[in-house]
Amino acid sequence: MTHRFRMSLLATGAAAVLALAxxxxxxxKQSEEESTNAGTAxxxxxxxxxxxxxxxxxxxxxLVRKGAExxxxxxxxxxxxxxxxxxxxxxxxxxxxxxxxxxGIAVTLAKPDAMKANVTKAAQAGVPVVALxxxxxxxxxxxxxxYFGQDERIAGRAAGQKLASDGAQKALCVIHEQGNxxxxxxxxxxKESFPNIEKIYVTGTDMPGVQAAVTSKLQQDKAIDxxxxxxxxxxxxxxxxxxxxxxQAKVATFDTNKELVGxxxxxxxxWAVDQQPYLQGYLAVDxxxxxKTNGNTIGGGQAxxxxxxxxxxxxxxxxxxxxxxxxx
Length: 328
Hints:
alpha/beta; Rossmann fold; 2 domains; 6-stranded parallel sheet; globular; disordered N terminus
């Protein structure tokens, strides 16, 4: 068992214990008002800025945000969620949060070069900052307290190994956001363990364009028998692309949503690499609350890993109930 994995388990367990403790903090019959507030931490109200690089309509971020909101509700936190897929724009949101004198910042670092200056300034100004989801190779140099996510290159290697074990011959890796270091790491990692893989760049905010680009590539290269996407919506678009191209290729993906879990169950998609986005959002907010109220840090200076794990036909039934609740 690796050090990172041990720390991930400890962090997850700590969050569960805190949640149980909060929920059991009062007993006996409750009024309607008390019931509504059950499980809320009895600590001063604090404000946390939650700043991501999400693009409009990407359902992955609904899961991250749900985790953050659930932790904020438990911890008596005013959660201010903002997003900008443009690196400099996201960096400006960090500076705005500092100017507003928030109590903490949770931020993604998918474009670390654009983020470094403002994130470092936030930490130097005394604002506690944690990172999540993107920037696993960059966060430690910015004064950030901790990181919650998966190592994308390791996840990519695991995906490539699974492609090989599935009997794939040639794969197309669909990158939906140029400049995102995590997405590049996924495809590069997959190529390390499955060399016959080709990248294609699409604009993730233009889903008809994504579908058309994948269709065209499949029509041009009949040797492609796997399409590896890096997000659930793009997997579903690729399912249609395969039909449009009259291709025999099969789809696998990173990340899930309710529709994607259903597609695995029905056999439209082979499998998904799950990094537990709900957990990333939850731990990011909860870790800031722990730091502000008790001086705790999580991870011991190392990333707290939330993935990767695989969801396929063998275990999809056990995940389905959580996907239906909007948490997987």
